[in-house]
Amino acid sequence: MSERGKKFNRRSTRIQDRFVLPFETVSYMHSASLTENFLVLTEIPLHFSRFSVLRTLPSGTAITNMFNWNGDNMSTIFRVINLDTGEQIAQIPGSTFFNFHHINAFGLKMEDTTTILIDICAYDDHHLKTNKRIEPYAGARTGQGIYPISYANSLVPVQFELPRINPYYIGKSYCCFYAAHSPPDRFIDALIKADAESKKECAIWELPFTSPSEPVFVPKPHANGDHNSIEDDGVVLSVVLDQKRKQSFLLVLDRSTFTELGRAYVPIHIPLSFHGNFY
Questions:
Q1: What φ, ψ does residue 202 adopt, rounded to 5°?
Q2: Residue 99 gets which letter from DSSP?
Q3: Which residue among 16, 95, 103, 108 sits deepest, i.e. has the most Cβ atoms within 10 Å of its Cβ?
Q4: Where, in this chain's numbering, is Fe cation bound (predicted)?
């Protein structure tokens, strides 16, 4: 494992065997955010139902039928956990939304308090979970919340999912993120780079009759996130389906312009998936 991976693993296991958090209901949580000192959970109002489990398992229907949406009378709760003690230090009600992926979160010192800024991909409700193939991510928006949660606003004026950042900036102040463009009328059709500070789309890669998967940012060797490093110094990788050739290829993009640097075809169609990593 790289030093980057070891550091992240140490941070993510600091509260192992000590983190016990009671919930009145079991909420669906696909991802969470880590800052240097805190774990941030989004408890969305999509809840696991024991009755639905008993009904779903014998029928062999989709696992999503095991959950009930309670967004009409419940909001999303942000839970903030201290990584050193494993204690919940804050429970903050937010607006009602559904989400899969967090982009990043980091702490800001403000006088005698610590403010946590969290960026996530959010949806008005859970209906996307039952859509199939063509529009599984329709209607996504991105938001930025401040702890204590005081407002939420759009990061960039495009719909996207599967966000990634430079892994050295997880839990730190950052600018750049990379994502798959997900328009409401069709499946993922492009990759984008955006700036979380300026709230602008910086670059886009798209090609007719292709379906890219999650973009993975790979830092340049020795660009380890210190003060001498440039945040977006590296390349972006994605596995792309070429619908005409019925084959997939590994795409390599320039980090600034999203100009294609190269591609490598494989002799098969690689199924589209949520996540990938570079080792």
A1: -95, -35
A2: -
A3: 103
A4: 30, 101, 275
Q: Please give the structure tokens belonging to residue 76.
A: 């999303």
73 three-class SS: coil
Tokens 């989400």 found at: 99
- What residues form the annotated binding site? 30, 101, 275
Distance between CA 228 and CA 16 in Å, rounded?
33
Binding residues for Fe cation: 30, 101, 275
User: pLDDT band at residue 217, thresholds of 50, 70 and 90?
Assistant: very high
Amino acid identity of residue 69, one-letter, is W
Per-residue pLDDT of 75-127, as tens digits, reads 888 999 888 888 888 888 888 888 888 999 988 877 777 788 888 888 877 66
Beta-carbon contacts of 6 under 8 Å, excluding residues fewer than 6 positions away, are: none
Give the DSSP H or E segment for 8.
Answer: helix 3-12
- Averaged pLDDT score across all residues of the chain: 77
Q: What is the mean pLDDT of residues 202-217?
A: 89
